[in-house]
Amino acid sequence: MHLITRFRQIPASAWFLWATVCLVFIAAPAVEYDRNVESPPALTGVVTHDPQSGSLVPWQPAHRSRRWLRKEFRWQIHRAWQRVHRRAALIKHLTQLMLKGALTMAAVVDMLTRSQLRRQMGALPVLYALLEVLQVRKAINRHCPTRAEVDHGTVAVVMVLNRLMAPRPLYLIADWLARTVLVYQLGIPAAKFNDDRLARTLDAISQHTRDIWQDIVHQALLRADVDLSVIFYDLTAFALHGSYADSKHVNFGFAHNTPMNKRKFKAGLDVAADGNIPTEYGLWAGRTADMATVQENMDRLCHLLRDHGWSVQETVIIGDRANLNDKLAIAYDDRGLRYLAGLQPQKKAHRELLVSYPDEQFYALPLNDERGCKGYWGRPCQVTFKHEGRQVTHRGLVVLSGPMRSALRKGRVTKLRALRQELKEVQTKIGRPYHRTVEAVQKRADTRIKRSSVGKFVRAKAYTDEQGQIRLRWWLDRHTFLLAIQKDGRYLLVTNDWRLSMQRMFDLYRQKDGVEKRFKVSKSDLKVSPIYLHKDERIEGMLLINMLALLAYSLLERQVRQNGLQMTTRRIIEKLEHLDVIETLCWDGSMLYRVVPVDEEQALLLQILARILVDLRRPRWLHLLLPAGDTLPLALPPPRGWQVAA
Asked: Does this model's pTM top 0.85?
């Protein structure tokens, strides 16, 4: 009854629509099934809408009425108010639970936190600020402009910071950068710093290494007021991997600190005695002799001193025995450059200077307060050099080193005992195969003596005794042995600065290990060897990056020690290593950044470092920079009577 009533209530138009649909399905043609033909649509009578033909409902207005917009606006406001109301109610409920002790603050924070990320900070803010003081990025961008999204200066700064903080191969720098706070400061995705991008920067800066280095060193010397009166010079070698068939820098050669079977290049470095600050460096081929680099280094150093308004005659360059011979002694005088160096006695006259005084005459002129095997003594002398018809005479000092003499004599005794043992072995083998004739025994004994470094002090002779037995005897050549003992611990220092006293010569020469310490920092802390590069341009660029890192390392260490804190830069980095930033992302999209707790020692260290950076940003005096062609702009001293306002 109710069903019939409902059918009667359906309008006639609806019955007409359903009848039309049924007729369409009945009139549809039947299609035979063919596997090679795609199946027809399941609903052949359904009409689909093509957006290109116009609106599906053409009678609907294209623009909404104001009434509808007001209604929609009120609806959006209502929904936003509901969300705020529900959030406030949730916060109220959670607060009540916390007050009752049913819910902890940590649980609330955990519910509000979507994710957390820990980024390394450490000493990065300090080192980054130091590189900004030195204007590393500005100097590189000035000489190597680019339209790329990431400029060469920024890439170079990242590589220098990586050398200082956690040295990595080029292909791992992007991963390191992504875990540090540098991504906040730079505002550039870490993926932009891939190894190809880093390699392009090395190629770019390799064309301007001298100009970039001079500009940055100028800032360091100016802001730190570095004393250039004493400069140390030395060379070291860096090993490489690969063939480098077409390289002009990489080849085999002799170096004290690398094996002969490794390809290498050499780097010469000048450092100021004031803080061991690097001032100049040079790249040399692996086969270059150390003495062949000295004159070019003289020219570079004189150029640097003049650019900074420093008198060449007031500077003393100190080097080892590879920095002096007859030709170089005259070259120093020609350039007006003062030097102090050890002399390898190649000439007979120079060798005679070492043995011309007995030990008793040395003991009357001590150079330190120690005696015995820890003492040092010296005798003044004059050293004459002759080259191409010219002759000069310089001041000399023959030094007798107690520690060196003791070490040489102990080593010689040990080697003599080992040689004696080998000769005894030859003696016991007499009569056995290959030891049955006098000639064979003599040959075996001579071979042992020749192989030993102390063989020149030993003589051996094989002979036949009265019973026809082959014998072997050996003895010590006393004359040669006594001459060697007389030279033990003695070396010759020479200078063309007659103002230096014996004590001053000795003290300055003992400080020359400052440049060796910088080489040690480069290879241990900065880890620049071995180098995995395969182009000369990239070797030059990477060497500049390493020298900039060494400059920043040395400058920070000098400034810290001047402020009464005896710490190396490596120790500072290790002390601040665990300072991280916690990045918290909440569910509403907001971000929270917090630094991990800082202990009292770290806080004090950061205060000292902040004071140092502020002091470096303030120049000692106003400098007027005048461009001078391709050379570094000259830094003029302030006019007379001019004072810096406090």
From this structure: no
